[in-house]
Amino acid sequence: MLKLPDFGLGWKVAVGAGVAALALLLWQNHRVEKLETKVAQAEADKQRLIAEVAREQAQRAALALDYKSQLAAADLKFTTTQQEKDDAFNKQRAALEDRRRADGVQLARLRDTIAIYATAAGSPEPYSSASAAAVSSSDRLAVLGGLLSEGAGLVVEGRALVEQREGELKRVLDELHATRARCDAGAASTPGK
Hints:
90% of the residues lie in helices and 0% in strands. By secondary structure, the chain is an all-alpha fold. The protein has a domain of 132 residues. The two termini are 93 Å apart.
């Protein structure tokens, strides 16, 4: 076997120190690699969390946009429906007002006709021969009876109109209360309140 020269104890210490330094260097290198792996894993986790947060924020923004569009569509539908109801109500009210005016004209005509016949029936002055021939007592009574039945018909129609109007007002009030309740419920369920 080959024999190495004896350099003394210093050489052995130097080699031992070198081996120890090499072992320490390898151990530190291993620790650095482990730390680099942990840092890379932490960076990957961080990027994954950032992506997840961004995805959740995008989902929230989409949900908020969808909610706002649904709210706007419901508001538009409600406004349109209310406008249609208002227009129908105003149109019906105008028709009822026209009918009331026409009934008023007819009632005034009936009153005038009744007043004319009542005055003629109670007048002590004798009729002229032309008016006596035109209007006999039975004719006057027949005309008065017709006018009274026409007046009674107008009263019945007037009562029916009043009842119809009361029903419409009750329906409008019920719709108003229902609309207020929906608005109050919508305000209570609005996010962020």
